[in-house]
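User: Please fill in residues for this 384-position structure.
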């Protein structure tokens, strides 16, 4: 009898193994060697393709200027695999850093031919469309070099149709300001390692993922990629999201116990990134930029300036009320544009005008600002 036992490290599996007949052949696996819930090999392909297209559009790829296609729609690209495979050796593929790291991550499981030849697949992606500039991460540079080598060997083995023009261009790398991003576990970010932050995650899902990110035991936050790669990686992620240079973010946060802000949002993720935070002060009346619910859960008081600009805001509210009635701004621009001069009527208006005489004003929301608006309106009526 040949038996496959999944979850072999579990309590039930260990008990079962002790009770199996000695002449039975047992194949014991755990989630690392055989994950029956992992559908990476197949999965919902159509949904994943559409999801990737959505991600590309979300980060700014313009479909009017870019061609987005599925490999299966271009058979000629896949047909390049055969001649390209004849131009590489097995030892070259085994030396590829990505292939080596993926092999190490499998805990000794046999590598599939698809994974071993992945660098050649990537070379077909690059070379078939005559790409001359390829945006890549630092870890992908060996793949790009493999593609350049294949292009060179293709010319040498099969010759050129035009002597001065190679059959395939030699592509160059385009590195961003963050040539390498680490995953949540501090290792290379990869879907196969389940350590990624997906673009389609909501704010709460992103915050939840970041809370699991590997850091260190130091209290002070510093940007030091060489000695503190995990913390520096989180600072780089924040920087790429528009929070400023990673060095500046680290300096601004440090080991602060009080955060004073005006426009910078203090979300759940930011609060979690400041373990010593004891109070938040908002230099404004509104405090909607702070996750007050989470701050309350963490026993962090949030303070604002409730009387800040009350008189001025009341004044602007009355000014906007009069503007809505008289349309002064619109007609001022219209007169300066010469439209009154060209009008056949002396009494000229382009929008309805409302006389406030005899009208009743109502105030919705009788807080500090509403109270001042009501008082100012009464004084204006008394002056009239």
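Assistant: Residues filled in for all 384 positions:
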């Amino acid at each position: 009898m040949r038996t496959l036992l999944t979850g072999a490290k579990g309590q039930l599996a260990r008990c079962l193994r002790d009770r199996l007949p000695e002449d039975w052949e047992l194949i014991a696996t755990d989630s690392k060697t055989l994950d029956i819930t992992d559908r990476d090999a197949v999965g919902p392909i159509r949904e994943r393709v559409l999801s990737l297209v959505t991600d590309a559009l979300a980060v700014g790829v313009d479909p009017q200027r870019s061609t987005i296609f599925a490999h299966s729609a271009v058979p000629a690209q896949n047909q390049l695999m055969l001649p390209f495979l004849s131009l590489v050796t097995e030892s070259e593929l085994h030396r590829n850093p990505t292939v080596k790291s993926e092999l190490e991550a499998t805990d000794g499981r046999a590598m599939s031919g698809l994974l071993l030849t992945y660098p050649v697949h990537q070379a077909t992606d690059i070379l078939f469309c005559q790409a001359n500039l390829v945006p890549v991460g630092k870890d992908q540079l060996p793949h790009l070099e493999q593609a350049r080598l294949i292009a060179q060997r293709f010319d040498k083995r099969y010759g050129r149709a035009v002597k001065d023009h190679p059959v395939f261009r030699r592509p160059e790398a385009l590195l961003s300001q963050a040539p390498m991003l680490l995953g949540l576990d501090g290792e290379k970010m990869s879907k196969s390692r389940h350590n990624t932050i997906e673009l389609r995650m909501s704010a709460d899902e992103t915050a939840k993922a970041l809370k699991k990110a590997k850091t260190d035991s130091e209290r002070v936050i510093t940007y030091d990629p060489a000695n503190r790669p995990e913390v520096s990686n989180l600072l780089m992620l924040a920087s790429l999201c528009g929070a400023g240079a990673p060095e500046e973010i680290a300096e601004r946060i440090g080991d602060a116990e009080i955060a004073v802000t005006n426009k910078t949002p203090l979300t759940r993720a930011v609060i979690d990134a400041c373990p010593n935070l004891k109070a938040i002060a908002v230099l404004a009346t509104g405090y909607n930029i702070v996750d007050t619910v989470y701050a309350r859960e963490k026993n962090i008081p949030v303070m604002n300036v409730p009387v800040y600009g009350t008189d001025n805001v009341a004044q602007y509210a009355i000014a906007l009320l009069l503007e809505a009635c008289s349309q002064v701004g619109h007609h001022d621009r219209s007169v300066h544009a010469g439209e009154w001069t060209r009008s056949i009527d002396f009494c000229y208006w382009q929008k309805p005008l409302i006389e406030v005489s005899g009208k009743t004003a109502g105030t919705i929301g009788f807080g500090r600002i509403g109270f001042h608006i009501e008082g100012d309106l009464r004084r204006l009526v008394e002056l009239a």
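For context: Residues 69-174 form a domain with the Rossmann fold fold (CATH 3.40.50.620).
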